[in-house]
Amino acid sequence: MSIGRVTTLAQVVCALVISAPLSAQDHTQHAPNASLAAATAGKPIKIADPTSVVLIVNRDSNDIGFMDIATKKMIGSVFLGNNVNPHMAMMSHDGRYVVTGGTRANKAYIIDVPTMTLVKEVPVGFAPEHLAFTPDGRYYYQGNPDGDSISVIDMVSMTEIKRIPGLVMPLNITFTPDGSKAYIGNYGAHWVGVIDVARHELLKRIEVGQMPGVAKFDPDRYLGDIKGVSNATITNDGRYIYAADGDLGIVGVIDTRDDKVIKTIRVGADPWRVYMSHDGRYAVTVNNGDETISVIDTGTNEVVATLEGGPDMTGVNFAAGKAFVISATSGFVYVYDATKWKPAGRIKIGVNLQLETATTDTADKTLYLASSTDHAIYVIDAATEAFEKVTGVGLYPWGTHVMESKDNYCH
Amino acid sequence: MTRWWDFAKSGPLFCLVVAGIGTSGGDANAQEGASAPTEPTSREQELQDRVDQLERRVGELESTTVLSEPETRVRQIEVYVDENGVEHETPQPGTRPVITYQREAVYRRQTISEKIDEAMEDAANRSVGVGVDAAIVLQNVQQTDGDDAPADGNTYELASADVFFTAGLAQNTVFFADIVGLSGTPPDNEVGGLTLLNGYAARLQNQNELTLREAWFMTELANQKLGLTAGRVDLTNFFDHNAVANDETSQFLSDALVNNPMLGLSENGAGLAAVFDPKSGFTAKFGYQQSSSTAQNLSDSLFYLGEVSKLFTPFNLGEGTYRAWLRSDNSSGSNQQAYGISADQKITAALTLFGRFGSAQTAGPRDEFYSFGFQLKNGVTFNPEDAWGMGYAQTELGAGDAEELLEGYYNLRMTQKMALFFHVTYATEKPLGAGEVSYLVPGVRFQATF
Fold this sequence. Notes:
The structure holds two protein chains of two kinds.
Chain A: H1 3-24, H2 34-40, E1 53-58, E2 63-68, E3 74-79, E4 86-91, E5 97-102, E6 107-112, E7 117-123, E8 131-133, E9 139-144, E10 149-154, E11 159-164, E12 170-175, E13 181-186, E14 191-196, E15 201-207, H3 219-223, E16 229-234, E17 240-245, E18 250-255, E19 260-266, E20 271-276, E21 282-287, E22 292-297, E23 302-308, E24 313-319, E25 322-327, E26 332-337, E27 342-348, E28 355-360, E29 366-371, E30 376-381, E31 387-391, E32 397-402
Antiparallel strand pairs in A: 1-2, 1-32, 2-3, 4-5, 5-6, 6-7, 8-9, 9-10, 10-11, 12-13, 13-14, 14-15, 16-17, 17-18, 18-19, 20-21, 21-22, 22-23, 24-25, 25-26, 26-27, 28-29, 29-30, 30-31
Chain B: H1 4-10, H2 23-34, H3 42-63, E1 72-81, E2 87-88, E3 96-105, H4 112-126, E4 129-140, E5 142-145, E6 155-170, E7 173-184, H5 188-191, E8 210-221, E9 226-233, E10 269-276, E11 282-290, E12 302-312, E13 320-329, E14 336-346, E15 351-360, E16 367-377, E17 387-396, E18 402-413, E19 418-430, E20 437-449
Antiparallel strand pairs in B: 1-2, 1-3, 4-6, 4-20, 5-20, 6-7, 7-8, 8-9, 9-10, 10-11, 11-12, 12-13, 13-14, 14-15, 15-16, 16-17, 17-18, 18-19, 19-20
C-alpha cells in the first residue's frame, strides 16, 4: 500500500471517528466552520483525549499551555499574540475547543484541542476576562468587565452574535443546568443579573442585599472601590444561587424558580465569592476582610463554621474529603476537614510566591495550582498533601483548567 | 456517553493526520468556494489594509492605555555557580546552588492605573504602618446598696488614645510598638473594687502622660509554625484568649470580663512569648514576663505562663475553642502557681457562649474566679455589624474579699472606623470586715479605630 493511500485512508478514518459522535449528539455538538477546517487541515493530532490534559493560562507568555496529566510534562502551548494577556480558559463540554479571553486585546480566542491550533480570533467587548459555555455547548458567554457587557459567541459560526449590555463589571457567568438562564455576578454593583439565554437579553437585576441604615454615616466606604458580587454559585440541582457581596459581607440565596432572594446570610468581612462543595452540602466563602472562611450549610442556610484563613484568599478546591484554600500572598494553602469543618493545617508551597488559582482533577485527588511569579504549576496530592513543582509551563500562569472538573474557576 | 476522543484513542491511524473535520466542514468549504468574492483592486486592497490597520490601532488604544515602556519584574532565581564564579542555569559538575535576583522582561503591558496601584501598594509595604485606637468612656456610678460610698452619684470620664506602629523588618519579622495616653478618671479609684470597672486602665500605672504599652519584635520560624515575640509585652494578648470576652475596645468594658484576674499580671513588662500554631486547631504557648515597673533585674516579679488550646465542634455545634493555662510567678517573694481555663463555644451563627475559671495560690486560701456569658450578633441587632452581650463574673480572694459583677453592652457600629457602645454594669463589692456595697454603673463609650 502506498503512502498516499495510507494517508487517504487515515483522512477518511479521522473524518469518520470525529464526525460520528457529532452527528449522534446534535444538541451538544456543532458543526465547525470553514475557518476551522482550513486552520486544522493536515495538522497532526497532539491531544487525542481532552480529559488527559490540564490547561494553563499564561498571562505573560500570552499562550494557553497544555500539560499531560499522566506525565506532568508539557505537550505544548498555543500562542495567542503579543500582549494578549489571556485571563481564563475553558474547554467546551465536548472537549473539542478551548476558549479564552484576551484582556489586553479585546478578543476571544478559540483553539482546536486535537491539533492545538488557534482557529479563530473574535473581537469582543472591553477587557474580556471570565467566561462560560451554555450547557448545550452552542454558545460561549464572554464577560467584558470593563465594557460592562457580555459577548455571546456562537460556536457554530465562531462569531459574536450579540453583545449584552446593561451589566456592571460582569465577572462570572453561571448557567442553569437546563440552559434557560444565566446568572451574572456584577462586581461593580450589588445585584445579580439574570439573562434569558434564548434571547440573550438581560431579564432582571436581583438585589442581593440592602445597604445597612448606618451606611449614610460612612459614604466613603461604599463610594470608594466597590466590591460587589463576583460570582453566582449554583447548587448541584440548579435550584438555588449563592451570591456573596463583598461590601455588604453577606451571601444572598436566590431561588432560581422565581429569581428572588429567599435569605441573606451574614458571613465574614469582604467575602470574595462562594465555592460549592462537590456534594452540594456546603457553600464556602473566603472572607479577605477578616481573613476567615465561612461555611454555610445549604440545607439550613446557616453558617455552621467560621474558621481562620489566610491573607488574600483566591480560591477553594475540594478533594479527598478536604477543602484547600489558596492564600495568594502568604505562600500557603490552608487545609480544612470538609466533613467536620475544622482546620487541618496548611501546606507551605514556598516563600515570596504569588499563588493564583487551582483546579482539581475529576477523581478529586489532585490539585493543579498556578503560581505566577515563579512561572510554575504545583501538583498537590490531596490525600498526602505532598506536592511537586512543574516548571517550564509558560510565563505567569494565572489559572488552570481540567475538563469536567468541579473546581474550574478563576479570580 | 460516547465521545469523540473514545473513537480517536481507539483508531490506530488517528494520529497520522487530521482531514476535513466533520461533514459540515466540507460543506462549508464548498460553499465558501462557491461564493468567493472577486479579487479586490490594488487601490481597494490598500484602503482595506488601511482600515484594518486603523481598527487594530483603535483596539489597542481601547484595551491598552498603557505605558509604552514594557513591564519588568525582579525575580528570585536559583543559579549554579562553579569554582570560577561562572553562573549556570542548570546543575553542572562542581557547581553549587545560589539564590540571586534578576530582572526579567514581562510580555505584558501594564495599564497606567495598574502601575499606579502597584506603586502605591509597594510604598505602603515599605513604610511604617501607623494606627490609632481612641476612646472616650463616660460612666456614672449610682450606689444601690450599702453604706454611703464616695463614688455615689459621681460621673467619670476617661479618654484613651493608643498610637501603634508596625514595620516589616525582614522575612516574617515585624516590629510593633503601642504608645498609649490616658487622661481623666475612671470610677475605679473611688469604687475600689477587686477588678476594674473600666478595662482601659488595666495594666497601666500612669495617667495623664504617655506610656509605652508594648514594644516588641516578632518573627516566625519552622515554616511559620512557631512565632517568637520578645520585648515589652502584654502576655494577656497571648494567653487566656476568648472569642467574645477578650477585647475592651469592642466587647465588655469591665476588666473581669476581658481577662482572668488569676493570671496575676498587673503591669506589662519585658518578656517573651512563643506560640506554636500549625493551623490545625491545636495551639501551644509558652511565655514569661516581668510584671513590675520597680523590678531591679529580670528575676524579679517574673511570671511564667503555659497554655494549650484546641478547637472542637462538639455535638454538631459550631466551633468552640477550649484553653487551659498554668502560671508560676515569684512576685510575692516565693513561687506561687495558678491555673485557669477559658472557653468560647458557638451555639448558632448568632449566639456564642463563653466561660472562664481561674484559681491562684496565695499564702492562705486560694483566690478563685469565674465568669460566663454570651454574645449575640448577626440578625439580632439593629445594624448588621452590631453585637451585644451579657456577662457575669465572680471573684473571691482567699483573704475573704469578694466581688460579683454583671455587665451588659451594646456595640453600635456606626462606620467601619467608629462605634458607639452602651454599657450597664452592676457590681457588688464584699470587702472583708465591711458591709456589702453595690453600684449600678451605666456608661457610654465612643470608639474610633483607624
